[in-house]
Amino acid sequence: MAATKRKGTNSDSDGMNARVWLYSILLTLQYGAQPLISKRFTRREVIVTTSVLTCEIAKVICALILMAKNGSLKKLSNEWTLVGSLTASGLPAAIYAVQNSLLQISYKNLDSLTFSMLNQTKIFFTALFTFIILRQKQSIQQIGALFLLIMAAVLLSVGEGSSKGSSSSNPDQILFYGIVPVLVASVLSGLASALCQWASQVKKHSSYLMTVEMSIVGSLCLLVSTTKSPDGEAIRRYGFFHGWTPLTMIPVIANSLGGILVGLVTSHAGGVRKGFVIVSALLVTAMLQFIFEGKPPSLYCLLALPLVIISIAIYQKYPYRVKKKES
Q: Which residue spans traverse the membrane (predicted)?
């Protein structure tokens, strides 16, 4: 009887490991390919807010389907409250909505590898805000890794500001519409990530429910912003789907599935596996950019890439441990 129980436990563990590997591989491919997909299939005429809103709607639909499949959707009517939802998801959702808009702007003005590498600075800001909000400390090795990451970001900023091989020939446009938006988005990502971690620890929200709530709140915030924003004016003048083609849905759907996968990887495997996913995604981005654009990485990217990989690997491998007091 005990042997049968152990066999069943091992089988469940193997099944979970297989799912974690599947989620990780899919997220690696999505995360690495997203900048390239967005640049290739999203025309410059597309209004940023429309693609973000469509992505949020797609995320809600995907999450609801998955909740219905695993049976958690039936329990929602008894457990869900508006106050609890706004407390857990309202602020992070508003922050993520702004972040997504900034990322969409940056996609169009940076090459894919540089975007992906600068986007990794969100790990530093996540560590900073988790310390401020949750009082989670960093080890000496982790602090050193964060400094390596900053060095990589500086290298990329200098390289992109002076490089002639970038997606735009105007250095000011590269800086203010490429580098600055992705770095501000990284700060916002760190803040929102810390708030989500607080919500999951206190409120015990599932990843699917958080996705639904944050997407809805974020979409409402974006809709309100269109009353005054340039994007709102452009939507009223040219229409919601101005510049869209059927192919524009490819990056939208890919991005929405990536949002679902992030929650799954984090909940099932934790931050260590997600760190490996981030590193692998950088390599995927570099490979795809060379294969499909025929553009080798710049010298600054080649110098910064190992710094990013080493810093993330060290940060994930040497977490802070509380020292035991000697008796």
A: 20-37, 49-68, 80-97, 117-134, 143-162, 174-196, 208-227, 247-265, 272-291, 297-315
**pLDDT tens readout for residues 277-322:** 776 777 778 778 888 878 787 777 788 778 888 887 887 788 777 7
φ, ψ for residue 153 (rounded to 5)?
-65, -40
Nearest alpha-carbon partner for 216 in 34, 73, 55, 103: 55
Question: Of the given ranges (13-27, 100-114, 150-164, 182-196), which has the lowest mean pLDDT?
Answer: 150-164
> Which tokens belong to 319?
């977490």
Do residues 190 and 129 touch, judged by C-beta distance below 8 A? yes
Q: Note the pLDDT tens digit of each residue in 4-38.
A: 555 555 555 566 678 877 888 899 899 889 988 98
Check: CB of residue 190 under 8 Å from CB of residue 128.
yes
The rounded distance, in Å, linking the Cα atoms of 274 and 325 is: 32
CA of 86: how far to CAs of 188, 251, 254, in Å?
Answer: 18, 29, 27
For the chain, the C-alpha Rg in angstroms (whole number) is 21
Q: Looking at this protein, which amino acid is placed at residue 43? A: R
Residue among 92, 70, 71, 49 at smallest CA distance from 232: 49
How far is residue 108's CA from residue 94's CA, in Å, rounded to a whole number? Answer: 23
Distance CA 142, CA 203 (A): 28
